[in-house]
Amino acid sequence: MKFDIKDSKLAKKGALRIEWAAKNMPVLKLIKERFSKERPLSGLKVACCLHVTTETAVLAEVLKSGGAEVYVCASNPLSTQDDVAAALVHDLKIGVFAIKGEDTKTYYAHLKAALEVKPDITMDDGADLVSTIHQLPPVVHANIIGGTEETTTGVIRLRALAKEGKLRYPIIAVNDALTKHLFDNRYGTGQSTLDGIIRATNKLIAGSNFVVCGYGWCGKGVAMRAKGMGARVIVIEVDPLRALEATMDGFDVMPIRAAAKIGEIFVTVTGDINVIRQEHFALMQDGAIVANSGHFNVEIDIPGLAKISKAKRATRDFVDEYTLKDNRKIYILGEGRLINLAAAEGHPASVMDMSFANQAFSAEYMVKNYQGLAKQVYTVPEDIDKNIARLKLKAMGIKIDLLTPEQKKYLASWEMGT
Ligand code: ADE
Predict the structure, then answer these.
(1) Any idea which fold 187-342 has?
(2) Sequence ranges of the domains in the chain
(3) Of the chain's two ends, which shows fewer C-beta atoms within 10 Å, N or C?
(4) CA distance 17 to 10
(5) How many Å apart are CA 380 and CA 386, to the nearest integer?
């Protein structure tokens, strides 16, 4: 079996951490039990371009118990947990191509290594694997029946590809499932982003001016958690509805130019490019901390900051200090890559349980239905989404009511008014 990882000796530590994550993934446990009996992925190769974390390892095990041959490469050069990569290879016999801190060339070489196995299904997080496939000759996707996509940024890229009529196979947008984005993007990104910033800096959040750029589901989560820790939260938006929502949720809303002067900690979660630029760095206070939790490292214009700086040094793990010409210091966390996975461990297992249940169910759905699907981006079927919510509630020991026959009838009727 081929693989490329940092250090096989880390496998024991990785295995213990995977075991810990699995305890908090009850929905995946149920799926694994069924998959082991039914083997819905039998004989298929699945190439997963995901963050190589303990939670991803649990998903990989589920896919394997469903009969798949699983290969994993990283979906970000800085998010790999090297101990998990080692455990996947040595304990679970899964081919992994990922090393934390790999350069861009190695990152893409690893994606290509995962494609060399000629997968039947792709599982992407950010659409780098699918984008790579679409820049290679068609022979590369000869076996592929379909794929899944984990995140907002990836779904946007894939919809753009489909709109141009160039998507070569059907994809299920896992991110669009309610049991994914309402929980993973909000509570997962909310908690893990604060976790990453705190682990990297050990700064007190209480009393700080905390600027959140973007008020999508991820931004909402980050703002909510920063507020919960006592920060004065400022939200930056370009969408009038979201700006209004942030205002009514109790946050200050203003343009980035205004926030740049007063912010102490900045987080970008927009999915767009150059959100914090040179002209904003020029306005920042001495000691400002700037981090990104969006998928790609494009939201902070780090080259622009470098241009107006006279010095740069690493001061702590995942903290680069830039000294401006007037001696003000600005701190960039995790090289502008998603801070929750660079400096912390990403979203907690309990929330990834639902995201990855969507992945497992979607892979199964693809196998059963790919012949009837067009080369389009599909949402996760509603019954899968609802089933995951039901299973999660059950695992949490929470019971809910059912509609009475009378209520059902009322909801399906139009006659009865006041
Ligand atoms: N994305 C965010 N957090 C993650 C995690 N813990 N595992 C895999 N992908 C993630």
Answers:
(1) Rossmann fold (3.40.50)
(2) 8-180+346-395, 187-342
(3) C
(4) 11
(5) 10
Structure token digits, residue 394: 């059950």
287: left (phi over 0), alpha (psi -120 to 50) or beta: left
| Token representation of residue 370 | 């790919």
211: three-class secondary structure by DSSP: strand
Pick the closest to residue 351 from 247, 235, 225 (CA basis): 225
Q: Do the two domains 8-180+346-395 and 187-342 of this chain adopt the same fold?
A: yes
d(CA 189, ligand 1 centre) in Å: 9
Summarize pLDDT for 278-321 with one digit per residue, the tens: 999 999 999 999 999 999 999 999 999 999 999 999 999 999 99
Full-model pTM: 0.96
The letter for the amino acid at 415 is E
Using CB atoms within 10 Å of the CB of residue 122, give its burial: 0 to 12 exposed, 13 to 18 middle, 19+ buried. buried
**What's the CATH fold of domain 8-180+346-395?**
Rossmann fold (3.40.50)
Tell me: the pLDDT tens digits for 376-386?
999 999 999 99
Gap from CA of 307 to ligand 1 centroid (Å)? 33
The answer to whether the Cα torsion of 11, 364, 180, 335 is positive or negative is positive
Our answer on whether the CB atom of 295 is closer than 6 Å to any ligand 1 atom is: no
Task: Check: CB of residue 74 under 8 Å from CB of residue 52.
Answer: yes
What is the spatial distance between Cα 351 and Cα 354, in angstroms, rounded to a whole number? 6
3-class SS of residue 188: helix
The residue whose C-alpha atom lies closest to atom 8 belonging to ligand 1 is 51
Does 353 sit in the ligand 1 pocket, CB within 6 Å? no
Tokens in use for 339?
A: 């801070």
Q: Judge if the beta carbon of residue 352 lies within 6 A of ligand 1.
A: yes
Q: Which amino acid is at 37?
A: K
